[in-house]
């Protein structure tokens, strides 16, 4: 009979246990998208704080419209399809593809803040995974791994199906955007839940679009967000790092 003292709990055992998409995979995904994951994601607004300061987003309806626009013209064209490609590359131990898409993603970051966010979150996630003995082979890790790159590795290691990886990442992003609004707009928590109810179908649509996109169709189309992020770098008073 198994007890609390002899149940295997070592990271290496847990990472390889269970079937793809099973209970352990689900729990691993929940851990990865949790706001309690100690990587500092709460410190970044991804240009949203500037949208508030500049008067582009002033209320619940405008916030929902902004978030849906970023989801459609940003995540579904950039982060989500990159996650799918990177997770496949990790599954195949394809170091060349991992390095290529990691560098491609760095090149799409249009401001210093957006680039810094991806690099710093990637570094923090790398440190965390190292402390948990969950890093991949050193030869497969790019010199400057971004957050998306290591998120894809962690999902693959936990045997999360690719589609669920994309949905989980999109969900975490939505929750973070609403957490930013609750602090900076301000936005009440009930209003945030109304936006979640409104946009849940949009997360599924964005995932479908991301999985269908060809390589030549990739790249964000977010000039407003890029402009807001650039202006945020010199914003006098701010709560967030981007």
UniProtKB/TrEMBL annotation:
UniProt entry keywords in alphabetical sequence: Chaperone, Cytoplasm, Nickel insertion
Domain of life of the source: Bacteria
Pfam families linked: UreF
Subcellular location: Cytoplasm
Annotated InterPro entries: UreF, UreF_sf
Molecular functions (GO terms): nickel cation binding
Parts of the chain that traverse the membrane: none
Cellular component GO terms held in the UniProt record: cytoplasm
Function: Required for maturation of urease via the functional incorporation of the urease nickel metallocenter.
Assembly description: UreD, UreF and UreG form a complex that acts as a GTP-hydrolysis-dependent molecular chaperone, activating the urease apoprotein by helping to assemble the nickel containing metallocenter of UreC. The UreE protein probably delivers the nickel.
Similarity annotation: Belongs to the UreF family.
Protein name, as recorded: Urease accessory protein UreF
Organism name: Marinobacter fuscus
């Amino acid at each position: 009979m198994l007890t609390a003292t002899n149940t295997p709990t070592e990271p290496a055992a847990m990472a390889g246990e269970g079937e793809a998409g099973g209970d352990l995979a689900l729990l691993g995904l929940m851990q990865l998208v949790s706001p309690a994951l100690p990587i500092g994601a709460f410190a970044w607004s991804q240009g949203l704080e500037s949208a508030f300061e500049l008067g582009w987003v002033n209320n619940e309806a405008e916030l929902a419209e902004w978030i849906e626009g970023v989801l459609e013209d940003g995540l579904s064209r950039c982060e989500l399809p990159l996650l799918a490609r990177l997770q496949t590359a990790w599954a195949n131990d394809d170091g060349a593809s991992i390095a290529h898409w990691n560098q491609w993603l760095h090149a799409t970051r249009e401001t210093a803040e957006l680039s810094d966010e991806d690099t710093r979150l990637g570094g923090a996630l790398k440190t965390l995974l190292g402390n948990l003995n969950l890093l991949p082979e050193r030869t497969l890790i790019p010199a400057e791994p971004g957050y998306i790159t290591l998120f894809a590795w962690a999902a693959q290691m936990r045997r999360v199906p690719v589609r669920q990886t994309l949905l989980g990442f999109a969900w975490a992003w939505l929750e973070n955007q609403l957490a930013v609004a609750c602090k900076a707009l301000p936005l009440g928590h009930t209003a945030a839940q109304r936006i979640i109810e409104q946009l849940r179908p949009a997360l599924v649509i964005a995932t479908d679009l991301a999985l269908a996109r060809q390589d030549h169709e990739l790249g964000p189309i977010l000039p407003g967000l890029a402009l807001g992020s650039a202006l945020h770098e010199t914003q006098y008073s701010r709560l967030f790092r981007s």
